[in-house]
Each structure stands twice: as C-alpha cells, then as structure tokens.
Amino acid sequence: MTEALGTSTGTPSARLRHTGPVRAARDFCLAPARPVGAPFVAFEGRYGRMFPELAPLEVENSRLLGLGAEGAASDGSDVEDEGSKPAGWPVFGQLVAHDITADRSPLQERADVSVTQSFRSPRANLECVYGAGAASPYLYRRDDPASFLLGEGDVPRNSEGVALLGDARNDVHVLISQLHYAFLLVHNLLVARLREDGVPEAELFMDARRATMWHYQWILVHEFLPSLVGPGLVDEVLRARPRHYQPDGEPFIPFEFADAAFRYGHSQMRERYRVNESGEPVRLFPGLVGFRPVPPALRVDWSLLFDVPGHPPALRANRIDGRLPRSLIRLPLAITGEVSVEAYHSLASRDLQRGQAIGLPSGESVARAMGIEPLERDEIGLAGSGWADETPLWFYILREADVHEDGDRLGSVGGRIVAEVLIGIVKADAESFLAKDPEWVPTLADGDESGWGIGPLLSTVTSGQGGLAPPEASS
Predict the structure, then answer these.
(1) Cβ-count burial of 458 within 10 angstroms (0-12 exposed, 13-18 middle, 19+ buried)?
(2) What residue numbers bound the domain in which 294 lies?
(3) Were 39 and a residue from 24, 80, 101, 295 both cysteine, which residue would form a disulfide, CB within 3.0 to 4.6 Å?
(4) d(CA 214, CA 112)
(5) How many domains does the chain have?
(6) Residue 256 and residue 66: Cα distance in Å, rounded?
(7) pLDDT > 90: what percent of the chain?
(8) Close Cβ partners of 446 (under 8 Å, ≥ 6 residues apart)
(9) What is the CATH number of the domain that holds 409?
(10) pLDDT, tens only, 205-241
(11) What pTM value is reported for the model?
(12) Is 9 contained in some domain?
C-alpha cells in the first residue's frame, strides 16, 4: 500500500496542531439570514494593503453601481462566451477564496478598514472544510471520529436540510457544495489508507488532514495557478522573492487580492451547467441554488467539469472579460436576502461597491505602480458610456485578462497579485508542503503525477473508486 503522506525525502508524517488564541474572521456569499456560528480559526487573520501608497479611486456611487446593472457593461446576458479552461476551475477558486478569506462586514458605501476582520487565517489549509476540528464534533462520525460524516451523495445535513459544514458559504450553490463533499471523501480515503498502513488511531485525523491539505496545496500551486496566471509567472514567484506581496512578519490577505483580483471567477462562471450525463443543462440560479439537499439528478459528475484522461473534454468556463452571466446579475433572494439598494441584486455591482468601500486604487494606478503600461481607454471599453474616470481595480483586471490573454487567464496586474499572494501564504505556512518538502508529489497519484490532478482525483473519489464504504446518510 502506498504511504498516504510519504515524501521524496523521507520527511516523517508531521502532526497538525494549532496553537494560539481563537479569533473571529470575514464573509461574503452567505445568505444574510443564515447564522454564522462560532469562530472556526485558531489563527488570527488580517487584511492589509499591497499598495498602501496609492490613493483610492473615488467615483459617484450611482455611476459605480450602474456598471454592474442589467444591460450595462458587466451584463453578459444569457450568451455563453466560452474560453479554453475547464468549467470547474472557478468553482475550485471559490473554495480557495472561502478557505483564506471571510469578510462579514455589511455591504456599504464606505467601510472602516481598521476594524475589518478576516474570519479566516491566511493559510491554504482547508479550514473551510475542517472547521475547528475536534471543536466541531458535528462534522465527524460518532463511530469513527477521524472521518467526516457524509450524506448520500451530498454534504451531511440535519433533519431540516441545513448543511453541517465548516463554512456555510460552501452550500451557496450545488457546484460548491459538491466540491466540498468531494474533499470530505478525499479525507476519508486518506484515513482508510493510513489506517491500513498501521497509523495509530489517535494520530489518524491529524495525519489525514495534513495529507489532504498537501494534495490540495499541490493542486493549487502546480495545476490551478499555472492555468490561471501562466506557468512562467508561477515558476518565477516560486523561485524569487515576491515584488509586491511582502508581509512584514505574519502573512496577511491584501484587499487588492480579496476585493478585486481574486473575484475574477465571477466572470468565468457560466449561465448553464450540465452536471451529469442523465440531466439537461440547468441555470446556475435558480437551478443550482444551494441551502437545500442535493437531489440525485443534480449530483455532479466532475469529469464533465474538469478534464479527465479517458473522458471527452470537459465543459469550458466563460472567458474572463468583465461580463457576468445573467444568474449573477440577477441574484435570487435566497442569496442576497432583502436589499436596501436595488443594485445589490447584481454581483457585479456588489463587487464594485466592495472595492470602493474598502478604498481600492484604480487599475491604472496599480499597473503604473507595478511598472506595467496601463490599458488604453478603448481597451477598457467604457468610454462609449461616458465613463471619464480611471477604472475600478476589479473591472480593470477582468478587462486586462480579455485584452492581453483572450480571456483565458489573468493578465500582468491580476496575475501577479494572485500568484504572489497564493504562493506567498503557502510558503509562509510552516505546515505546508512548500515549507516542509517542496519536491513532494501527491501520493494519491500512485507514483505518476504527470497525468494526475484535480479532475482524476474528484472523478475517482466521487465515482466510488476511492476504496470507501458507501456513505452513511446523516440525520
């Protein structure tokens, strides 16, 4: 049996132990009426600025929100404009965002950044999946506390259908809840392998958690980021000191990342998804809205959303171009709740509002600070609507991807922000594979990582090939 956490240098299986005080931390994507529960984290998270010297972009609020309104620049209507990347990648990106950022401050015109808290530690450690570990006993099986509780093809739920998760945002739509479920299966598979390898019961949970985290981090660094920002930039940031993300001491999440660059995936989401072979394409909202049990007809076959060897090419994500699908321009009440501003039914308007409230600089000013030639006004595409200001950073990054990378990946500004932050926080984490053993390769790849990645991993565990007993339904 392959050792579940073996490394190429013989590094022993380190135990995961949290130290330090429990802190509270930040949330978007959660229905307003849904309770958030106790803090999950054992590390204090914080936000900061990557470019503190740059002045905020100031735009009259109604004009700003108008960019995200129906029929405006960010409205992609019902037309799919596919790029070349598999449709599952922006869903994985959403899981990463929920793992490292959680802003629970209300949406508003101006926010006091000095009191804006991050309810996530700046570590790619699947905190959104594991919750507080032993302090979240409702996530784990009573008869096998090293393993996650599972539903029938779904995340575990209580008798009212409420998901039992480390982060309630991972039930906002079926795609993200099914991805969360798949990572529960990955952990349980690793528990089974470690148990077969003779790891003591008292050590199983910590070892399986660390093994799952390393597989997730490897996918993040070696598959997700090269697809999103280009392999050349990933290699550069892995080798050299970051140019712009340079935390003084403890790592932090820059507002430029959380409230602009890493919201790129909203533009990559599709209006319709075919989630399994037996079903027809359904709209993201309301067809795949979450906060309810996932019926068999909507259980995701990941070979349709990620490329898997031996299967036809997966569905493609939309191009990153500044336009959002109609489902995100008209968010349902299940997601937004009652809103005081009509524009807040549009996720594009909410993204724009968040950036201005937090005082983000313009995209052009960030480009200049990076030594990059800014986009021309006709490349931004807002001049025809009378827009005379510089461009909100979020929208600029989406347009840069379209102009310079044909919408298939982030451009120079967005790509560098994302690469430096994600690689930076993985490097800074003393438990990560980059800190412990940068040459480690995934043991679930069974010795051949060349064709291995998230597609084969998810397809294997969710198709029942992961060596797991049938999941027990939760109460």
Answers:
(1) buried
(2) 47-462
(3) 24
(4) 36
(5) 1
(6) 22
(7) 75
(8) 2
(9) 1.10.640.10
(10) 999 999 999 999 999 999 999 999 999 999 999 999 8
(11) 0.88
(12) no
